[in-house]
Amino acid sequence: MEDLIHLLPDAVANQIAAGEVVQRPASAVKELLENAIDAGSHTVQLIVKDAGRTLIQVIDDGKGMSFNDARLCFERHATSKITKVEDIFSIQTKGFRGEALASIAAIAHVELKTKRPEDETGTLVLIEGSEIKEHTLTTTADGTSIAIRNLFFNVPARRNFLKSDNTEFGCIEEEFTRVALIHPDVEFTLYHNGKLTYDLKPGNFKQRIVSIFGSHFKDKLFPIEHETNFIKISGFLGKPESAKKKKAEQYLFVNHRFVKHNSLHFAIESAYEQVLPDGVHPPYFICIEVDPATVDVNISPTKVDIKLQDDRVVYGFLNAAVKKSIGEFALVPRLDFDYNTELDLNHVPEHAQLRVPPVAHDPTYNPFHTSGSGGGGSSSGGHSTGQHSPTPPDWESFVRGIQEAPITPVQTTTQSTLQFESNPQESLPEVDAYLITQRRYLSVKIDDKLYLIDIQRANERIIYEEYLQALQGQPMAPQQSLFPETITLTGARAELLADIREDLLKLGYDIEPISGGNFAVNGTPYAEESGDVQTLVECLLDDYQSNQLSHRTDRDKNLAISLARQKKAVMKPLTALPEVNHFLQRLFSTLLPTITPSGKKIYEIVDTARLLG
Ligand code: ADP
Ligand code: MG
């Protein structure tokens, strides 16, 4: 019988391989931009027509290529960046597989002009469907210009898969953004259909973010900075109020390469857990640097997927560093009350056994409480067992004292590689006057600043944290009622109640099924709590269920948030100064007094000193 196997002609093999690297115009853009960066360019121009269908051109002022290299670069596995396989574990360049230009040349008409600064003349290469059409000397500027025309001219199937110009150009912008962000020292321009769409001057990382995403980003970011001999984490995080339901600007770079990494992404988002409601996403721009030997970038042809050797350790560091930054910067108003938080991220000893820091999974983490005292703000008056919690004679001198006091680093108490500690100066302000308007807005003056606080929202935050703590640690004791009230619930609600009954008990609600859909309310958390338990429970169950459906919320959080929302409006009104002060104590002892767990602003500050000139 005849043999069946034959070798594919090069042109066919190249076309097939090209499919891995070049799926759409944006993939070609990415490869060309990365080559320009690898060539050490200072200025990179991207010119695009018809979302890349007609033309993609990248012009750089990098090191250029010799006459021979200009032809060789289109060969498969032709690269100047590595010579042996180990090299990919110390790689400093974006490329190393030597397949981008070969792939592009297989499926487009390519014109390359290049010149090394040290050469007299440059080189021109024309190549179409892997076939060299021209290879001559030419005059051209130092650097390289590659123009790709008629992408997929010989692969109609791919061409037909392309989406609208809007979508394709969106993808191009995204690739452009990823490269431009992480190289803020390089000047980038992007022209689309003759129009200058981006003009990015060299600057620092923050300036680059702002010049790409707009000046409104200036005030939306706070820095993240953390360095040990194992990892360097830097960049910017979005303030909670800049989080979005969809398409948040989220950029993670590992060793200057944009990467997609689910678990690292989760490390970042979960650090925002108590600051943001579920289903919304914070912007972030984070650069991680680790030893390249611990990163495998060669697991996909486009190199956006990577594998980290110390996956869990990096996770822990990243999660902790994000939490630390949130603690320091998202809470600026709270720093007025001086929670001088010294969070200690220790260095890893050179040969230490690395392990995941325990804090990475601590849902009750509260940077403003000593470790062990947990989260929550229910403590009486906010005084901890702390070593130094003097009652200040008056608020002004108190604040002055704090401002002048040096911040002392905190000693770590255990051998854990990474740990948060706080420096509790938990004395909170006492106000001597207050005003409540519309029964909802509390105004108090603290150190020349007027705080306008939404009482209901504040209650939501306070109660939420108390509940979460009760669910995860110290349950609340129900106050038994002498005459249990009976409530009636229909099918789904009755089932749900049965399901969360145990948890409700931890929150002080002792609700017992009697018969059919009838339940006896034997106890509630506060003896004085009256109100309509039937409605409270119904609303609670409905809210709980809709949270569950819409965002797969964690059980405890869901219950805490649902109940807090029901209760915020029925809390006892504030009617006297001691109550107001107690309320302030509780609010400012929470993890995040600025925002409700549903993401709403709790108070506004008016700087009266400035207001009055
Ligand atoms: P890789 O980047 O993986 O090496 P490419 O196919 O993208 O593979 O490029 C092949 C080679 O062509 C590169 O290794 C580099 O030597 C050269 N090259 C490509 N683009 C440029 C450029 N803009 N400037 C200088 N040299 C380039
Ligand atoms: Mg390349």
Strand order of the largest sheet: 5-4-3-6-2-1-7-8
User: Based on DSSP secondary structure assignment, what is the total number of beta strands?
Assistant: 24
How large is the count of helical segments? 17
Amino-to-carboxy terminus distance: 99 Å
CATH superfamily of the domain at 10-203: Histidine kinase-like ATPase, C-terminal domain
As a percent range, the share of helical residues equals 25-40%
* Hetero ligands: adenosine-5'-diphosphate, magnesium ion
Task: Name the poorly predicted regions.
Answer: 330-426
| Main CATH class of the domain at 10-203 | Alpha Beta
The computed structural class is alpha+beta
Largest sheet: 8 strands, mixed
Secondary-structure arrangement, i.e. CATH architecture of the domain at 10-203? 2-Layer Sandwich
How much strand? Answer: 15-25%
As a whole number of angstroms, the C-alpha radius of gyration is: 30 Å
Mean pLDDT: 80
CATH topology (level 3) name of the domain at 10-203: Heat Shock Protein 90
- Estimate the global geometry from the Cα principal axes: elongated
